[in-house]
Every structure is written in C-alpha cells, then in structure tokens.
Amino acid sequence: MWSSYWDSVAVFLGINVLMGISLYVPMTAGLISLGQGAFMAIGAYVCALLTKANVPFLPALLAGGAVAAVAGLVAGAPALRIRGIYVMILTLGFGEIVRVFFLNFEPTGGASGMGGIRPLTELWQVVLACLIAYAVAWRMRHLRLGRAMIAIHEDDLVAEAMGINLTRTKLVSFSLGALVAGVAGGFYAHQALFIDANQFDFSRSAITFLYVVLGGVANPFGSLVGAAIVTLLPELLRVVQDWRMTVFGTILVLIAIWRPDGLLPAPRLRRS
Amino acid sequence: MLLHVDRITRRFGGYAALNDASCEVAEGLVHALIGPNGAGKTTLFNVISGVLRPTSGRLRFQGVDYTGSRPDKVLTMGIARNFQHVRLVRGLSVLENVMIGAHARIGRGLLGNAAEFLGFAVAEKAAREKAREMLDFVGMAGKAEMQPDNLTLVDQRRLEIARALVSDPRLLLLDEPAAGMNAAELNELSALIRRTQVNGLTVLLVEHHMRLVMSVSDQITVLSAGTIIAGGPPQVIQRDPTVIAAYLGNGDELALHS
Description:
- The structure holds two protein chains of two kinds.
- Chain A is mainly α.
- Chain A has eleven helices and no strands.
- Chain A has one domain.
- By secondary structure, chain B is of the alpha/beta class.
- Chain B contains ten helices and ten strands.
- In chain B, helix 3 (94-100) packs across helix 5, helix 3 (94-100) runs parallel beside helix 6 (153-165) and helix 5 (122-137) crosses helix 6 (153-165).
- The two termini of chain B are 30 Å apart.
- At the A-B interface, helix 5, helix 6 and helix 7 of A face helix 2, helix 3 and helix 4 of B.
C-alpha cells in the first residue's frame, strides 16, 4: 500500500540522499563541510523565486544548483588555506551566514518565510537526479578528477608533486558538491511548499554529515544507506511513540561502536 | 646546462639547512648528490621540486627562472621526483597510482572532463597505456591491479619511479631509491637508471649507497652542512681530501672506494 504518505517520505529520502552525495563529493578530496544546508537553502530560494516567476521547473532547478555552485566557489576559496577541522569550522560559519541572511532578507520573506510554492517535485524526478548524481560520483573514481581528489585526500604533497593543481581540484569538488545540494534544495522547496531560513540551519548540515559518516565515507553508496537509515528509521520507529528519538539515537550510537568506518566498506579492495 | 641551482639558502628558523649552495646539472647525465646525514640533500630536492621555497637564491630550468613555483607547476615544466619515505595513494590501485603522475598530461578543463565522463576518454586511455608501459619499464608488469599496501618496499620504490616517469620528465629526482635493497635489487636499480638514459633523461640522484653512486653516476656533487664542498666525476670525488674529511669527520666510516 503505497500511500501519499510514503510517497512523500520517499521524496524526502531522495532529497536527503542528494544531500549526502553533495557532501560525499568534497569529502573525497578531504574537505569536510558542515555547511551543506547553506547551499541547499540557496538552491531552494533561487529555484522557488524562479518558479514563482513562471520559469519552468527544470531550468529553475538547474539555476538553483548553478547559484549554489558559485556560492560553493566563494565559500571554498578561503577553505583552501586551511585543513581538516578548520574547514569544518569555516563551513559551519558560512552556513550560519547564509541562514541569517535569509532570515533578514525581506524580498524572500525574511523571518516569516516563503510560502505559496507550487508542488512541482515528483518522485521520479528526484530518483532520476539521484541516479545521475550516483553515476557521476561512481564514474568519477575512475577518472582524472576523481583520482586527483583521492590523491589530495590521502597525501596532498604527493598530489601536488605529481602535477595536480590543489586549488583548482579542491574548488571544483567543493563547487560540485554545492551544485548537488542546490538541486536538492530546489526539490525540497517544491515538496515542502513553504521554506524559511531555519529549515536550513546547522542541524540540517549536521544530519547531512551524519548520512555520510554513518553510511561509510569511503563508498559513494554510503550516503544512500546513511540517508535511508536516518530518514526511514524514525518513521518506522513511530510504533515506540515517545521513545522514538531515544531508540533512534541508541541505534546510531551502536552503529558507531560496531562499524566505526561506516556501514559500507570501501569499494574495490583487492587482496593478493 | 639543464638545471641551475644558484646560491640557494634555505633557513628553518635560525638554522640554515642550505647555505649559499650552487650547482649545475648537465643534460643527459646521471648526477649524484652525496653528503653525510643532515647535509641538506633532501632539503635541496624539496627546493628544486618546489615543495619548499628557498629563503634566497634562484632556480633555473632550461634557462627559465622558476623560483617559487608550486610543485604542480614544476612537474609540468619537466621535473619529476620520488620520495625518500615512500608516499603512495592507498585508496588507488598500483596502475592508478602511476596514472596520478600522468594527471597533467590528460585533457584538462570542463569540456575535457565532460568528454571523459561520457566515454570519449582518448587522453585517459593513452595515459593508461603509458602507465602500463612504465610499470613494465620498472619491472612491475602484472602488478598493475594490486593495492600498493601489498607491495614489497622495493616494489613501492619502483612504483614511485614509474609514477615519476609517466609524466615524461626531462629531469628525474631520485631520493634514496636504493634504501632497503639487496645486492641483486641494487643491480636491477642501476640497470633501470641506465635504461632511463636512453631517452636522454637527466637523473639527479641522492643516495647513500656508494657502490651504486660510483657505478652509475657521471657527475657527483658533495654537500656538507648545507654547503657544496666538491663536485666532479666519481674518480676525482673518491680522492678528494675535503670529501673524505667530511665523511670521516662526521664519524661516518663510509668506504668511498667500496
């Protein structure tokens, strides 16, 4: 019995999977972002504004992604000079800047948010977007850019000494991730039908981080598994009613203990 | 001259690892850089390959001043290197590790990447071929699909040489490639270095293994305490009293004649 309730859950799952991929891509190059919610917000607002101006959904969606990608370049540029935990703090700050911007920006509704968005998101579109994003993420491992990102992640000195332009590769990976988050934001706006700044706050970014870490950082399908668990488990746990989030949290902790590298292993590990 | 190292000084705080060091590397030769531990050999390598900026002094390659260029730029100019402590990318196969070295050779830009993604990966295929060729060249054919972690240290060193060679360098910097090798492997290594010469490649070699250095090199530069104290062909260096003093004075009873 596929009700509209499950239809809606599936759409949000797809959006979350896209968010997971949007973080997985820069993480391949060793850039951990705690500000993916900001790119999602940018995509959501841009896309919603455009469809309100009667721009068809697909171009609006792509425009949202494109603006988010540009924002990714802007946010990524200072992140190039720093590493690891400092990148996380910087992206966290960027996320807050974007949230507070939309909170105070009256043309997009400010604190009262933006309503009256048409329900244009359909499940097949989200599924298709996920498939495309996965095809790219999977193929990338076997391409020049993907290899360069893995090399930077593991040893940026070697990467640079072997002719890889660190600046360009890091920016491209950050921006690609932002693009995916922007598209996810467009879908989200036209599914939720009402958006405000606080829907894209730190907890959105943190939970996106959780998808990837839970599923397995070394595997592009990790974010799928992680997003599925984080999205579906609370729905399935409704039977335990008030204890829902407690049980959910316990399960997450247990997974972290049993599978510290995430649920999915790194692909293509050869033994000889 | 292929490479000019012109009065390079590199300080770490108050300590000068390199102090006004100058040398020239002629095209097509195997040029060894020797000296006691702590003489500044690896620092000089890092300066030449752009990993470290010199505090003062200039670097010229094929007549072009490239002082201060980033390592990726230096590689594209035609200077490739290995690392004294092997540095391989563990998440990639042996072949893919070699292909990292071909990065700059493969088509660039958004269009190139898009074409590659859609399967028109002409440059990618050529790079793959070339990477296989290089593995073959260093004697690692058949190990292309292995994980670098599962290789012996000697093979890991060979892999680094293949990775450097795939970028088609004019100058190859080898930092202690013989470390940990037995006699048979040493002979293979010296044959390998000789084979790279066929294409007119210049090799700058840092090595403690004197038998290898004396047998394979055309020119030797001796570095001690950040300063160049001697230079010349092996026969001259072996008899140079300042060189002998530098080694013996350091308590390093390395037999230069062995």
